[in-house]
Amino acid sequence: xxxxxxxxxxxxxxxxxxxxxxKIYDNAVATGVPVIRIEMRDYLKTILNMTHPTRILEVGxxxxxxxxxxxxxxxxxxxxxxxASIELxxxxxxxxxxxxxxxxxxxxxxxxxxxxxxxxKRMREKRFEYDFIFIDAAKAQNQVYMEEAIQMAHPGxxxxxxxxxxxxxxxxxxxxxxxxxxTIHDRLRQYLYSIKNDPRIETSIVAVGDGIxxxxxx
Length: 218
Prior knowledge:
The protein is an alpha/beta fold. 45% of the residues lie in helices and 17% in strands. It has helices at residues 2-11, 19-30, 38-51, 65-77, 90-102, 116-125, 142-151, 182-197, and strands at residues 55-59, 82-87, 109-113, 132-135, 158-162, 201-206, 212-217. α7 links the parallel β4 (132-135) and β5 (158-162).
């Protein structure tokens, strides 16, 4: 596909991580743990440099690579920041905490273990507010996460939803998708329609990595 050639071309110009962070990325890929794609990583760094957030919420920690990558970017900018990251899988959360200690980021990154919707609700009730929110968890629950995210945002907060193309399956009709994937496919389609028509946010769908939706709270 032409798009795959474009992705390969873009990746060829990407810089490697620092050795310790690259090791975490390589281990995640080798063990089949989802991590953000190279193009998304570069795009994320650009957005962080544009917005300079100090209060960051991540929905979907995995093994902590994206949190640690954001921490590296924000440190280079010279910001005093804090990242709260939510992970459902206890084993992934333990690995993430080990990786965070390995890179000495315990003061800046805090892992919350549990169902993201429930954890976000508790955060909202405590009136937590964030400048930047990165949603990269169970795709079928994106609408729930977005609603909670908006409630914890302020005008100008950037909310990014990653992997919205489902490896291009989102382009297909309902009946051309494998039966096991149809629920997620339909919910993602509904989600994209919803966030493009939600009067509280302005959203752009961008063909970066596996597709992202970037929303700004009005």
